[in-house]
């Protein structure tokens, strides 16, 4: 009771339609939303860049919206995001006085002033609203609006911040972020080549088609390299540019491609500085663990010196562990 927050010691009185923010169901639901956001972070840029060609649009208009499994998955994600908005409107929160707010009006007001605009914009099914528009400009606009779902990554970053004290977790998150950024840049790299290909024959897509022997035919929208070839080549280029180990077999030719390559190399330099300090980051993060074991050793020496009975010894060790997990070794009185 000395280390736990007051609101976790006394369960507040709530109605049946109000959900406690620390309840097991809310924790389970947050993990579901986390997986959906990660799915969105991977497939939304990919579908916006690689799956919006003329051939795909004609096939989609002929068989309907549900003929594409990605469309069905996106629709399910949108529905779950809308359900998440409803749940957040009925989920308690802790105010500045460390008191749990259970009044529906205050909860709604707090959520509307916070994450509600971002969550609402990310949950709008733009592709379903303007389906069968028959315009290439509207299809491009749809793909751009769908990337608004990536705004939810900000909330995910805040939830993953609790694992920042573990060195292995930080290293794993850095690697995942690096691969995710490379994936996004690969989608942008392909989009640049796709937009410029009708106006020039020196882009990287034409060079790739020449190398693979799959030349483009303007009368056949399905000609040229496959989506797999284009994505793998684009990801190979962005990873080689970020790590500065490019071999030149995929090179920028147009001004737009060169400008984008410069931006990728700048991002690569930023990440090189981060990975260069990984050892220092892990050492700093493990310093908290070292302090914990040092303090725990002192507690055991204190117990052994004063010959504390077994029952009281176990309570003392559990108290220290709970206090450390709550304060992370910080002197709260200071």
Automatic annotation (TrEMBL):
SUPFAM superfamilies noted in UniProt: Voltage-gated potassium channels (SSF81324)
Chief subcellular location: membrane
InterPro entries xrefs: Ion_trans_dom, K_chnl_volt-dep_EAG/ELK/ERG, K_chnl_volt-dep_ERG, KCNH_animal-type
GO MF term list: inward rectifier potassium channel activity
One GO cellular component term noted in the UniProt record for this chain: monoatomic ion channel complex
One Pfam family recorded for the sequence: Ion_trans
Subcellular location: Cell membrane
Residue stretches spanning the membrane: 31-52, 168-192, 259-282
Topological relation to the membrane, as annotated: Multi-pass membrane protein
GO terms under biological process: membrane repolarization during cardiac muscle cell action potential; regulation of heart rate by cardiac conduction; regulation of ventricular cardiac muscle cell membrane repolarization
Protein name: Ion transport domain-containing protein
Provenance organism: Seriola lalandi dorsalis
Classification of source organism: Eukaryota, Metazoa, Chordata, Craniata, Vertebrata
């Amino acid at each position: 009771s000395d280390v736990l927050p007051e609101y976790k010691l006394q369960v507040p009185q709530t109605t049946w339609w109000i959900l406690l923010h620390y309840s097991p169901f809310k924790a389970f639901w947050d993990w579901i939303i986390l997986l959906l956001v990660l799915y969105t972070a991977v497939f939304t840029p990919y579908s916006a860049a690689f799956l919006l060609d003329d051939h795909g649009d004609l096939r989609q208009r002929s068989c309907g919206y549900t003929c594409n499994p990605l469309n069905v998955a996106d629709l399910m994600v949108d529905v779950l995001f809308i359900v998440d908005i409803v749940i957040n409107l009925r989920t308690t929160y802790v105010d500045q006085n460390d008191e749990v707010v259970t009044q529906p009006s205050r909860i709604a007001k707090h959520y509307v002033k916070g994450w509600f605009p971002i969550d609402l914009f990310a949950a709008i099914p733009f592709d379903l609203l303007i389906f069968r528009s028959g315009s290439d400009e509207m299809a491009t606009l749809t793909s751009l609006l769908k990337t608004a779902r990536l705004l939810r990554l900000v909330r995910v970053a805040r939830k993953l911040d609790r694992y920042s004290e573990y060195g292995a977790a930080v290293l794993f998150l850095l690697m995942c972020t690096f691969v995710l950024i490379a994936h996004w840049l690969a989608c942008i790299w392909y989009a640049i080549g796709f937009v410029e290909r009708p106006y020039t024959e020196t882009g990287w897509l034409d060079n790739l088609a020449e190398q693979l022997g799959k030349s483009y035919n303007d009368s056949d929208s399905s000609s040229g390299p496959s989506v797999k070839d284009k994505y793998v080549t684009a990801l190979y280029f962005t990873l080689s540019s970020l790590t500065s180990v490019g071999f030149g077999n995929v090179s920028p030719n147009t001004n737009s491609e060169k400008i984008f390559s410069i931006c990728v190399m700048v991002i690569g330099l930023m990440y090189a500085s981060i990975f260069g300090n990984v050892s220092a980051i892990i050492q700093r993060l493990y310093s908290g663990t070292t302090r914990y074991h040092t303090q725990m050793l002192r507690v055991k020496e204190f117990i052994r010196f004063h010959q504390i009975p077994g029952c009281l010894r176990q309570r003392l060790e559990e108290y220290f562990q709970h206090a450390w997990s709550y304060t992370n070794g910080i002197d709260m009185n200071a």
